[in-house]
Amino acid sequence: MRQIILDTETTGLYANAGDRIIEFAGLEMISRRLTGKQCHFYIYPDCDINEEASKVHGITLADLDGKPRFAEVGQEIHDFLRGSELIIHNAPFDIGFLNMEFSKMGLAPVEEIAENVIDTLVEAKRKYPGKRNSLDALCERLEVDRSKRVLHGALIDCDLLAQVYLAMTHNQFTLDIDLNSDSNTDGGQKSNIDYSARNFKIVMASADENKVHEAYLDKLSQTCTPIYRNEE
User: Fold this and answer.
1) Cβ neighbour number for residue 156 with a 10 Å cutoff
2) Which CATH architecture has domain 2-168?
3) Average of pLDDT values for 198-219?
4) What per-residue confidence (pLDDT) applies to 180?
5) Phi, psi dihedrals of residue 186, rounded to the nearest 5°
6) Closest Cα to residue 7, out of 94, 70, 69, 75?
7) Which segments of the chain does DSSP mark as H helices, in order?
8) 106: left (phi > 0), else alpha (psi -120 to 50), else beta?
9) Active site residue 152
10) Order of strands across the sheet that contains 33-42
């Protein structure tokens, strides 16, 4: 599954009231590994930047002089997102702005080009009810280093969000692996090893090792019933 971690910075809070995207960043992740492929633009908005918004991300209109307008880079962003699962913190905000910008260009909305959207804010509220679930709070809770994040920035926020997402979903793996299946992958590469032809050496536990193991199960049985104990 190809996933894109994305974030935007904007001139203000309201996509339907004239605010525009001034920074877009997306990082590609495949099989839970960042590939190094990214899509990142600073964008000239053709409007003023709200003073409060500028305090958050530190971007001024002067910083964007000479940067492309969204119409010049929108198709590349659209193509980068197509067919992927998107990972976004507070997804309605970013999707609302992207859909507004795409609409101005006559491009399909995010909902039509993305395979799925994971909102990490929604997932965090479900996982940590009643707690602060901003990106900063999640970084602190999950021990993700955010020392380089002085101000909000789409690219650095994507990097932090990728680490937060992986930490939040670290247990989403399966041990039900078919070693001879074509679907078994390592970093997206098919395994060509035929395990059925191998003669693996079987090493049995010694009598002393079995004795130690049984003593451990006796102790464990005082609090629960080990389902892996052979009762005859």
Assistant:
1) 16
2) 2-Layer Sandwich (3.30)
3) 70
4) 42
5) -135, 100
6) 94
7) 51-57, 70-81, 91-105, 110-113, 120-127, 135-141, 154-168, 207-220
8) left
9) yes
10) 33-42, 21-30, 2-10, 85-88, 116-119
* SS3 at position 56: helix
Which pTM does this prediction carry? 0.72
Task: Write down the mean pLDDT value for the chain.
Answer: 84
Cβ proximity of 102 and 78 under 8 Å: yes
Q: Which residue has the higher pLDDT, 184 or 60?
A: 60
User: Measured between alpha carbons, how far is 115 from 83 in angstroms, rounded to an integer?
Assistant: 5
Among 85, 97, 90, residue whose Cα is nearest residue 138: 90
Q: What's the one-letter identity of residue 222?
A: Q
Radius of gyration, alpha carbons of the chain = 25
Structure token pair of residue 121: 């804010």
Is residue 178 within 8 Å of residue 24, measured between CB atoms?
Answer: no
Catalytic residue among 57, 78, 152, 213: 152
Would you tell me how many other CB atoms lie within 10 Å of the CB of residue 41?
20
Total Cβ atoms within 10 A of residue 67: 15
Eight-class DSSP state of 111: H
Q: What does the pLDDT read at residue 211?
A: 78
